[in-house]
Backbone:
């Protein structure tokens, strides 16, 4: 499946995206569903208080195991008002970060595939959370976000307003993280001693 990552000097690139690579990936995955199966992983270690650290290293995809030369290291902490020391974004802020990245990437890739050049794009995210859910205090609707609001600002001089609106809707429909936060996902927890 090395064809997925294949990059040649003749490939068309738009918005920093290898457009020919997108269509190669679509062709391969249309013929071989196994090439579309990915498993992403994260290891986390508690350090102290609200501070914990995640390591993102290997993943499985395109019928192969992939290992990064240097793992990504991501810290989570809480702000002082939530008894932390603010040494990193808290986990619910990390969710907004993941959603922002996925919406942006999805939109930009689909724009490139449609031949639309994005000149500039910014998004902002707000999520409302009632901590009574976390603390077990009656009255919260849920433990997680009650609502997330997204604002998208795009400048694409060669696209119509209708094309931009369709790209935003397409990003909502196709973003894996948008799907994850919008729909229940089975989560299985095991405990090792």
Residues:
């Amino acid at each position: 499946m090395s064809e997925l990552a294949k990059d040649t000097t003749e490939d068309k690139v738009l918005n920093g995206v290898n457009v020919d690579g997108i269509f190669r990936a679509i062709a391969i995955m249309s013929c071989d569903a196994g090439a579309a199966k990915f498993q992403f992983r994260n290891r986390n270690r508690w350090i102290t208080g609200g501070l914990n650290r995640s390591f993102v290293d290997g993943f499985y995809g395109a019928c192969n195991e992939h290992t990064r030369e240097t793992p990504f290291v991501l810290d989570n902490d809480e702000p002082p008002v939530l008894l932390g020391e603010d040494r990193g974004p808290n986990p619910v802020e990390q969710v907004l970060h993941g959603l922002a990245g996925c919406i942006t990437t999805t939109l930009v890739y689909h724009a490139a595939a449609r031949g639309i050049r994005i000149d500039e794009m910014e998004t902002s995210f707000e999520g409302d959370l009632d901590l009574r859910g976390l603390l077990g205090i009656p009255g919260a609707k849920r433990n997680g976000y009650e609502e997330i609001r997204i604002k998208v600002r795009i400048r694409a001089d060669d696209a119509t307003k209708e094309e931009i609106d369709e790209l935003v809707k397409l990003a909502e429909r196709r973003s894996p993280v948008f799907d994850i936060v919008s729909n229940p996902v089975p989560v299985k927890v095991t405990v090792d001693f």
Residues 58 and 67 are 4 Å apart (CA to CA).
